[in-house]
Design a protein that fits this description.
single chain; alpha+beta; five-stranded antiparallel sheet; three-stranded antiparallel sheet; 17 helices; about 10% strand
Length: about 425
Amino acid sequence: MQYLSQTITSHIQEWLMAIGVRGSAVTGIADVVFVLCAIVAVILVHTIIRLSFNLSIKKIVAHTATKWDDYIFNHKLFSRVLYYIPVLLLYGMLIANYQDQQVAVLIRRFTYIVLTLLTVRNVHLFLQLLHQIYQYQEFSQRRPIKGIMQIITIFVYIVGGVLCITIILDISPLTLLGGISAVSAVLLLVFKDPILGIISGIQLSANNMLQIGDWIEIPEYNADGEVIDISMQNVRVRNWDKTIVSLPIYSLVSQSFINWRGMAEAGGRRIKRSIAIDVNSVKFCDAAMIKRFSRFSIIKDYFISKEQEVEKHNQMRKLDSRQDIVSCRALTNLGTFRAYVFAYLRNHPHINQSLTLMVRHLQPTAHGIPIQIYAFCSDIAWERYESIQADVFDHIIAAAQEFDLRIYQSPSGSEVTKLIEAHYTHLAT
């Protein structure tokens, strides 16, 4: 390499003198021309190698069944690696041509800086490639690593920057790091948010607290929607009204938030709603009511077993319901209605039967007796869930009348007016 460089330089000098250049200008111009020729030669060599290499790799990649090699080729990682060849080739040509120690030191430092920056860039591209390949895996939504990749990228750039500074200043990296440690308090203050984001991202990922696609709710940030991106510092949420909220990732660790993923994994969306029964409509079931209720096929078995249970209880205590209904054990229209609603939900095709299902009394209030339905809809999609829930309560409210029960509601203005008019009409007559 040294012989070739010196030969080229001497030919350039002879050519310059042949065209009339004399004196010290010959050496300076010859050096400039040599550098330009070296750069052009290196570019040509790199272009030929890159084109031939890409054509060969493209044919190989096209005939393989795997996908990861396609990602590598499309990401141009191979082309980036080939940049080492022209840099090293140019370095060898310049070092071989210039014997001056100071010039050689400058060339060496410049080359080291270029190689360091090139390596940092290639590592960055490699991390992006790994993240892209990871995103195509099924478990990537459960374990997002974008924040971790960003942390590693920042660390790589910091290391690259430290190495470049040490090369320029010709000092040891440990010496530079020792000086940086003296201002670590200032650095912690300046980079507080990134540091908090790094720690929070690690906690969220390690504890599986958040995944892309989760529906979360954070009232403090007006966030109520689907997580669409998790980065080192921010979490982006697309709300139900299609607005997008960006919130700091450490807020998910420092504050509480609701994650509805458990609902999706459980396979049911909760129905927890009550209807108020007018207390004055609750009564014991007489023979006519029992005969009428027993026609409902959905609670026919309930009536058979319940009547046997009640009759056995009263016979043991020698009680007669025809003479003393209060002392006896007897069926009520409200209890029968609760049994009907429970049986109705047990046979409903859109109610998840493997999860909790209850029809219960709540504390009576001035608005009547609340009967709460606690169940889980098997369809968790919002629109269909609301439709199913509405159908269930439409049926329950209509069925209450069949059990001689009245749904409580506060009297409206028109009802009060009619009552007053009826009162005055009665007084007038």
